[in-house]
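User: My collaborator sent over this chain with a note saying "see what the structure looks like." That's all I know about it. Can you take a look?
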Amino acid sequence: MWRSSFDRWFAAAGAVMALLAVVVALNLRNTHRLRTDTGTVIHTHEVLDALKSIDSHIREAESAQRTYIIVGGDQVSPEFAASIAAARDAITLTRRLTQDNPTQLPRLDKVESQVGELQTIWRRTIGVRQREGFEAARQVVAAGQSRRLMADLQSGLREAGETENQLLIERDIQTARTYTTAQSTGLISGIAAIAGVIAFILLMRRHLGVREAASVEIAEQAERLRTTLASIGDAVISTDREGRITNLNPVAETLTGWSLAEASQQPLDAVFRIVNETTREAAANPARRALAEGGHCRPRQPHGPDRERRRRTPDR
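Assistant: Without extra context I'll predict from the sequence alone. Here is the result:
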């Protein structure tokens, strides 16, 4: 019965632990997915920022080139070369960010080639301005080659940006779904975990109540047994499985000379010794044989000189 009760408790505790483990696993999974989805959204924003940076730096280089054509001078503004270099760095960054997107890489290759062509045309125009003056440089600009290249480059950047914006919309939707799923799963699993713990507590309370009722019943039975034994006219001695005294009724106390308080937990042989009436030597205790054999034994009353009687030992 104890084993069965232990198995039920073990199964209940295992079920609660398994439920909590599932809750933890679901929360970790949802957190990981939410982090991944948020990361993709952030990544898309980084790509969009890099594309905008390419366009911005190219415009700055074009502006520096036009300013020089109008103003002239011995030196071109350092901003022109710095803007071209920054645009190339932005292209490198964008390529690294979109290396897993086969749609964007060809566009970036084309953009990079166009930046190189624009740089060549702008440098040639600046050289014409330095050697031949403003009017000659104006005619080169009026030919429109750099304007067409600039329009093509910006068109490619817009296409790349539209692709990333579409990805951003999809990833925002997925992130919102993941967040909603995480909330719902967390709420459901949390409620389930609380319900499991409450069920375990109720089961434990019920078990303790049953044990308490059983303890009260056992105590009542023990009291009735004690009262019954006390009223018996024969001497009654009770022991545990190890042969230690647990109870003496009044007749046994009178016979042995031991009180219950003194005899409690004492070995049976120390309290109840049997001696041969003739030889005064210790005789075998039938109660010991009963304990060893797991049965009950009532000593027979011998006859003649071998008759034995129970008495308290004088050496106590």
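A starting point for your reply to your collaborator: The first strand starts at residue 237 and ends at 239.
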